[in-house]
């Protein structure tokens, strides 16, 4: 029944979307990355939950929960721009091998101190700072390396969506597993499992056959390259607007995770297993969101998902702040996780599509600042607010701020789309339009 023409009707196209949902995995390097990261990320999420529970067990303080999160994230804010320049100048695979090896050392140090029962809040703070410094280089390196792993630019958006699915499957498994391990033993075994899991991702990186990019170590000074990256980010309406909304959501919305031990213990009157269930529900919502993006064939239409996702995220947070029942809180975590991941993945995909290759590391370093670098200030703010007005009211305020950001972005959406369109046309994502056809194709 199918014609041999190049353009297929709507139904066959939809069917092909599903059959091509995992097309990025046809690239050997990305398959290796997928396999290694799938193991390592479970350990990473176990460590995140174990660290927050350890801090709360040692201190019983929501303020110190925020402080530890601040200590672990502030290095990203300070060093990510310099890391972006390094990523554009150096071998990205080697950068990632070093960051993963150092992260393994950090997790094993946490494990040793916790299992021997000599760990204090001071060691947790110091090792959190060390991990934050590693992340400042790892995150822009990982994002910029994506295009070298998939090679075919047409598969880049699919690779980003698959990567988000992988992260959220780990977010689902890791916290639940951590809750069980902590309840049965203590946090140290979570840290040990995380440390061992880094072997998988390091092995996958070593096994890759990567064609070198156009690194230019001696082209210009680091200061010039820093300036060049900033000029691009601040001058691009789509990139600037997306990053500003993302920074607001990271500052006001994302730090709700820091307060999860308080909700688990005080609001829902549970223990580490309750914390694991809450984080697991958040992961399920985020995984559903990521999978909905995996089946997309194009980045077309993602721009309107950015503010819509922030709106869903904000509404989920407000409702979660009012909930005192575990079943309802778990349901609301599904909604919150969906909105959170939809915004993160859509933003990442659009920026990666728009940015020129020679500035990818620097632009993704600003993405890292918006995603992780604003979070330390948000963690301190969330911890301080929770100390003053309670965790529930703090999360409600966070949700209101996210909704305000979504409305602001929506007001600028027309300008964002107008600047995106020529780039989409150049990449072949959209056909050059006739003067009368203005917005239809970008929106659909």
Tell me about this structure.
The protein has a single domain, classed as MFS general substrate transporter like domains (Growth Hormone, Chain: A), CATH 1.20.1250. The chain has 18 helices and no strands. Helices cover 80% and strands 0% of the residues. The longest helix is centred in the N-terminal third of the chain and has 32 residues. The N terminus is likely disordered. Helix 2 packs antiparallel against helix 7 and helix 9 packs antiparallel against helix 16. By secondary structure, it is mostly helical.
Topology (SSEs and partners):
Elements: H1 10-19, H2 28-59, H3 62-89, H4 92-115, H5 121-150, H6 156-184, H7 187-207, H8 222-235, H9 237-252, H10 260-267, H11 272-294, H12 302-322, H13 326-354, H14 360-373, H15 375-389, H16 391-411, H17 413-427, H18 440-443
Instruction: Give me the oligomer status.
Output: single chain
Find the count of extended strands (DSSP E, 2+ residues): 0
Main sheet properties:
none
CATH class (first level) name: Mainly Alpha
Order of helices and strands: HHHHHHHHHHHHHHHHHH
The low-confidence runs, each spanning 5 or more residues with pLDDT under 50, are 1-18
Count of domains? 1
**The CATH topology, please?**
Growth Hormone, Chain: A
Helix content: over 70%
């Amino acid at each position: 029944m199918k014609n041999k023409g190049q353009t297929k009707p709507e139904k066959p196209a939809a069917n092909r979307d599903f059959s091509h949902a995992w097309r990025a995995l046809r690239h050997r390097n990305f398959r290796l990355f997928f396999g290694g990261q799938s193991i390592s990320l479970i350990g990473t999420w176990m460590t995140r939950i174990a660290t927050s529970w350890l801090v709360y067990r040692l201190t019983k303080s929501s303020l110190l929960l925020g402080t530890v999160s601040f200590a672990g994230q502030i290095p990203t804010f300070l060093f990510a721009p310099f890391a972006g320049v390094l990523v554009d100048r150096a071998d990205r695979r080697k950068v990632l091998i070093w960051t993963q090896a150092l992260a393994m050392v950090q997790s094993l140090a946490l494990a040793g101190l916790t299992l021997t029962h000599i760990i204090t809040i001071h060691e947790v703070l110091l090792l959190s700072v060390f991990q934050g410094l590693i992340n400042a280089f790892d995150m822009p390196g990982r994002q910029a390396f994506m295009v070298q792993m998939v090679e075919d630019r047409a598969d880049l958006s699919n690779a980003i969506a698959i990567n988000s699915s992988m992260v959220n499957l780990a977010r689902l498994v890791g916290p639940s597993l951590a809750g069980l391990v902590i309840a049965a033993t203590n946090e140290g075994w979570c840290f040990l499992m995380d440390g061992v899991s880094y072997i998988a991702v390091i092995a996958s990186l070593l096994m890759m056959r990567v064609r070198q990019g156009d690194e230019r170590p001696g082209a210009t000074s680091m200061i010039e390259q820093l300036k060049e990256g900033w000029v691009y980010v601040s001058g691009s309406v789509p990139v600037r607007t997306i990053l500003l909304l993302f920074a607001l959501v990271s500052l006001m919305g994302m730090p709700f995770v820091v307060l999860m031990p308080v909700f688990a213990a005080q609001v829902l009157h549970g223990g580490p297993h309750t914390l694991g269930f809450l984080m697991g529900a958040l992961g399920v919502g985020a995984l559903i969101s990521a999978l909905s993006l995996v089946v997309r064939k194009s980045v077309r239409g993602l721009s309107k998902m950015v503010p819509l996702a922030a709106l869903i995220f904000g509404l989920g947070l407000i409702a979660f702040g009012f909930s005192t029942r575990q079943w309802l809180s778990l349901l609301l975590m599904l909604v919150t996780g969906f909105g959170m991941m939809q915004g993160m993945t859509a933003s990442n995909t659009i920026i990666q599509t728009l940015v020129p290759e020679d500035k990818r590391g620097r632009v993704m370093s600003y993405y890292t600042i918006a995603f992780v670098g604003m979070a330390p200030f948000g963690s301190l703010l969330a911890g301080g607010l929770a100390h003053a007005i309670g965790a529930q009211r703090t999360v409600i305020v966070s949700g209101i701020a996210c909704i305000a950001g979504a409305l602001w972005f929506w007001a600028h959406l027309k300008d964002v789309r107008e600047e995106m369109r020529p780039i989409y046309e150049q990449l072949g994502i959209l056909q050059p339009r006739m003067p009368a056809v203005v917005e239809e194709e970008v929106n659909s």
